[in-house]
Amino acid sequence: MQIPTTKHLEQCLVLIVDDDRISAALVATILSNVCRCLTVSSAGEAIMFCQKRVPDLLVVDLNMPGMGGLELCRELKKQRDTENIPIIFITADHEESAQLSCWQSGANDFVTKPLVADTLQHRVKNHLLSKLRLDALMSLSFQDTLTGLFNRNYLKHEYPRLSRQLMRDNQPLGLIIFDVDFFKQYNDSYGHLKGDMCLEKVAGVLSYYSRRARDAVIRYGGEEFVMLLPNTGLSGVKEIAAMIVAEIHQLDIPHKNSPFKRVTLSAGAVSVSDIEKHSLNEVIEQADINLYDAKLRGKNQVVIG
Ligand SMILES: Nc1nc2c(ncn2[C@@H]2O[C@H](COP(=O)(O)OP(=O)(O)OP(=O)(O)O)[C@@H](O)[C@H]2O)c(=O)[nH]1
């Protein structure tokens, strides 16, 4: 089976990390007909770059003043956002021990100087293609096709890691379940296709409010969405849930068979501080009880506790 890739090779961004400008320019020229390239001149700059924008691959000079290539590689492989970026070292060192150090730091490959242009191009190309296939598989496994949000698989996969992190930092997890009110009637009145468009609009608003790097929105069921808000206490969770419910109300998406005459959301929210004592199911269950309460109290509102 051919796995559909998320973008083309020429759209990929390779970050070249080299303190020697001439050497960096040579690598950029060699790779110019394979992909897009940007250059930074130190490991520190590379880390800052990756915090703002994640490249598809890094070509790193092994020996740089200050933080060297090996340390940079170890650092990037530790971080969740950068752990899957292929890293290729360029080294003038032909010693076996240097090669071993590259592998041990987590590098995906290395090329030796003097550079053979064809070899560098093919290595970069092969690693980029593997990365594109991995990205495509990740999005097929973890993305909801209608809304582009994460799916339930992602939540199950992500929760153990997230809860370990929150435990270490002694921080709470905020979680909100949103459910579109009278959505069966919406489909019945306007048709399934319009129903899908309505879900896409709701998803857009939820994504907009998922502002911090580790916040996440998941399409949990048909018209049910879960928002994960790490490091967020009860008052923060309440504020965000209320803003989203109000925003959907303000959007004024017509719904003739709702008593509100527009599309609305109900929300059940929690903030759990002793996360180690609770499974994902327990946290969801608590939020779901609150959601049920919001529905009982007349919908278009948030219940938190
Ligand atoms: N258009 C569309 N509809 C969906 C999708 N997934 C689920 N639904 C519909 O969502 C509706 C949910 O109905 P209910 O669970 O009865 O909820 P409700 O009508 O919103 O009732 P309350 O939650 O009590 O306000 C069902 O009619 C499903 O067919 C989807 O992907 N697209």
Query: What is the correct CATH architecture of the largest domain?
Result: 2-Layer Sandwich
* Helix and strand composition category: alpha/beta
Cα gyration radius (Å): 24 Å
Helix content: 40-55%
Bound molecules: guanosine-5'-triphosphate
Can you walk through the features of this model?
With 305 residues, the chain is α/β, with parallel strands linked by helices. It folds into two domains: 132 residues, Rossmann fold, CATH 3.40.50.2300; 153 residues, Alpha-Beta Plaits (2-Layer Sandwich), CATH 3.30.70. The strands form two sheets. The chain has a five-stranded parallel beta sheet with strand order 2-1-3-4-5, with helices on both faces. β4, α4 and β5 form a beta-alpha-beta unit. It starts with 12 loop residues before the first strand and ends with a strand. The model has no long low-confidence stretch (mean pLDDT 94). Bound molecules: guanosine-5'-triphosphate (GTP).
